């Protein structure tokens, strides 16, 4: 039985995860990889996020990233590893995280006691993450913790993100949602990535999207207008609750007071970063 208030872990995740994700929207990531000869945005993303797994092929990344079209992944992997090593990709990503956080948070926040406190709390939470059946988390857990507090916080956010993400994939499989159905149904909640971003970055075509909508309508999860039905809303709520259960250990380990404080600190950093333009304004929505 949980010792935390309902959805406390989820709220903490939602406060901390975006600071990790900001690097993937940052021009700094593209600049770092361009200096190494990698300029295609998809190639940069697959190399930077997948490097912790080693010089793997398209199949491994398609499986662990879940919602990308395999055809897109196969255009870049394993070919990218003939141009850059996984170690070099990880170093480039960390340099990009450093410059991105300095730019969107400011040097005062970077050097603050609050950043050091947040790093300590997030790393403590990550101590209770488990590796079994969590390949992306396990791969990142093998990486060293950076010395600087803001990068230690970013690293811990990475661990917490991938730990929850790996669990969420198990929930999606249990619910019978394929990669694009997962995206379409999440977008229908109004909290997921906008369709234009999905089609531009995940390798799917509009016809693929429309087919997924039809499949979800056939299951009674979307109505004729593409909105979630009562059953669809219940399914999405159940997915998050299942993910919460599989992701409870880090936050139970941190405890109620620690979770509340990490959530508070993470939200403060997130507000500052978002105000500085860390995320695209049209990233989330149904349109």
Assess the beta-strand content as a share of residues. Answer: under 5%
User: Taking all residues together, what is the mean pLDDT?
Assistant: 97
- Compressed to H and E, one letter per element, the order equals HHHHHHHHHHHHHHH
SS element count, helices:
15
- Strand elements, count: 0
The structural class is mainly alpha
- Could you estimate the helical fraction of the residues in percent? 55-70%
Distance between the termini: 40 Å
Characteristic terms for this protein:
67% helix, 287 residues, mainly alpha, globular
What does this structure look like?
This protein has helices at 8-21, 27-34, 41-50, 58-65, 70-74, 86-105, 107-110, 113-126, 135-141, 149-175, 179-188, 195-201, 206-218, 230-246, 248-275. It has 287 residues and is an all-alpha fold. Helix 11 crosses helix 13 (206-218). It is globular, with a radius of gyration of 19 Å. The N and C termini lie far apart (40 Å).
């Amino acid at each position: 039985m949980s010792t935390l208030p309902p959805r406390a872990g989820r709220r903490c995740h939602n406060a901390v995860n975006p600071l990790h994700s900001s690097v993937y929207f940052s021009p700094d990531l593209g600049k770092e990889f361009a200096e190494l000869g990698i300029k295609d945005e998809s190639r940069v993303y697959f190399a930077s996020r997948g490097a912790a797994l080693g010089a793997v092929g398209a199949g491994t990344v398609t499986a662990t990233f879940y919602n990308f079209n395999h055809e897109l992944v196969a255009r870049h992997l394993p070919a990218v590893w003939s141009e850059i090593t996984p170690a070099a990709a990880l170093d480039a990503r960390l340099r990009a995280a450093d410059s991105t956080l300095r730019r969107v948070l400011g040097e005062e926040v970077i050097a603050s006691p609050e950043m050091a406190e947040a790093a300590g709390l997030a790393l403590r939470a990550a101590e209770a993450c488990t590796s079994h059946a969590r390949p992306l988390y396990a791969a990142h857990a093998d990486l060293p913790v950076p010395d600087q507090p803001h990068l230690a916080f970013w690293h811990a956010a990475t661990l917490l993100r991938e730990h929850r993400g790996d669990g969420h994939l198990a929930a999606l499989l249990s619910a019978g949602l394929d990669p694009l159905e997962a995206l379409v149904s999440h977008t229908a909640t109004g909290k997921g990535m906008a369709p234009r971003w999905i089609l531009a970055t995940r390798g799917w075509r509009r016809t693929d999207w429309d087919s997924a909508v039809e499949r979800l309508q056939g299951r009674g999860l979307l109505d004729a207008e593409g909105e979630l039905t009562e059953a669809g809303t219940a399914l999405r709520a159940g997915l998050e609750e299942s993910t919460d259960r599989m992701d409870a250990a880090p936050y139970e380990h941190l405890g109620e007071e620690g979770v509340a404080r990490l959530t508070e600190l993470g939200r403060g950093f997130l507000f500052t970063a978002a105000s500085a333009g860390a995320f695209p304004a049209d990233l989330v929505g149904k349109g």
